[in-house]
């Protein structure tokens, strides 16, 4: 791949893009992010393997780094692990978006009686994307407390990025089953399946094929780090082209154990063509978020 910065610049120029759109990046309140980093450092039970944070810097340094890679739009994915946390995270994310124009205003929720109220407020305040982490939150996405939330999000057409695959470790409610149940109730939901649903790749590809408004993000997929643990099945490679309009680039910046350039190179080396790569790295997200 050569020098990381040089490769990224050359790739962007080759694709004829003014910049990339990264739908899966994390900016959080400092004390929350430091707890997340500490969890990764300790290789906590939801990770279960050594994981070194590549971009462990102050917020403004991280923003400068991401923009330096040519990223023109990104997210501030936050997620609660307990009740009475989501509304506070939403307040922080709204302030972050207000002072960071290239960040898509991000929000989140948790199954609790107050969820419908603060989700409605977030939508009215201009939230462009919501993040849900089934593994960390340890809840069923079709929890009755979330029915009014999903109804609002479906009607508003706001995308929801969901970590619902069973990687790195399975949770009680991870896997394709709960998401398939959710979509039976709310078939027009604009879900974005994080990590392409790893390791249940085939099942989540099936869901995307059934629901054209469902997208898959490439966060960590096809990298050496992910392929060593949850390799994408060779037999499914052709479907990456077939569903090329529903695949979005995501990096997991800054919480990745390798360079940002490697995340892009992992897609480039699939040899699916520049048209496919251009859609994944920019055009699909630009269409979804009307950028």
From TrEMBL:
Highest taxon, organism lineage: Bacteria
Protein's UniProt keywords contain Lyase: yes
Chain coiled-coil ranges: none
Record keywords: Lyase
Alphabetical list of Gene3D superfamilies matching this protein: Metal-dependent hydrolases (3.20.20.140)
Keyword tRNA processing belongs to the record: no
Domain Amidohydrolase-related, chain residue ranges per copy: 21-291
Any single Pfam family the record assigns to this protein: Amidohydro_2
InterPro entries, per database record: ACMSD, Amidohydro-rel, Metal_Hydrolase
Name listed for the protein in its UniProt record: Amidohydrolase
Annotated organism of origin: Nocardia albiluteola
């Amino acid at each position: 791949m050569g020098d990381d910065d040089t490769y990224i610049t050359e790739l962007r120029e080759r694709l004829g893009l003014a910049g990339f759109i990264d739908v899966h990046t994390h900016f959080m309140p400092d004390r929350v992010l430091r707890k997340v980093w500490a969890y990764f450092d300790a290789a906590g039970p939801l990770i279960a393997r050594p994981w070194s944070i590549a971009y462990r810097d102050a917020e403004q340094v991280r923003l400068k780094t991401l923009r330096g890679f040519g990223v023109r739009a990104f997210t501030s994915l936050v997620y609660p692990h307990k009740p009475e946390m989501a509304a506070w995270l939403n307040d922080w994310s709204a302030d972050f978006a207000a002072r960071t124009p290239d960040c898509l205003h991000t929000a989140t929720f948790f199954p609790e009686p107050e969820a419908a109220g603060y989700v409605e407020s977030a939508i009215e305040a201009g939230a462009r994307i919501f993040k849900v982490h089934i593994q960390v939150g340890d809840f069923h996405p079709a929890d009755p407390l979330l029915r009014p939330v999903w109804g609002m999000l479906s009607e508003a057409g706001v995308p929801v990025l969901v970590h619902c695959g069973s990687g790195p470790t399975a949770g009680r409610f991870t896997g394709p089953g709960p998401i398939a149940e959710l979509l039976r109730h709310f078939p027009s939901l604009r879900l974005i399946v994080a990590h392409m649903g790893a390791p249940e790749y085939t099942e989540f590809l099936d869901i995307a094929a059934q629901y054209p408004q469902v997208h898959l993000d490439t966060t960590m997929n096809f990298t050496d780090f992910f392929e060593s643990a949850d390799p994408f099945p060779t037999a499914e490679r052709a479907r990456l082209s077939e569903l090329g309009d529903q695949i979005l680039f995501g990096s997991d910046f800054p919480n990745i154990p390798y360079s940002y350039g490697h995340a892009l190179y992992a897609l480039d080396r699939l040899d699916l063509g520049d048209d496919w790569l251009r859609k994944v790295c920019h055009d699909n997200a630009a269409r979804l978020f009307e950028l």
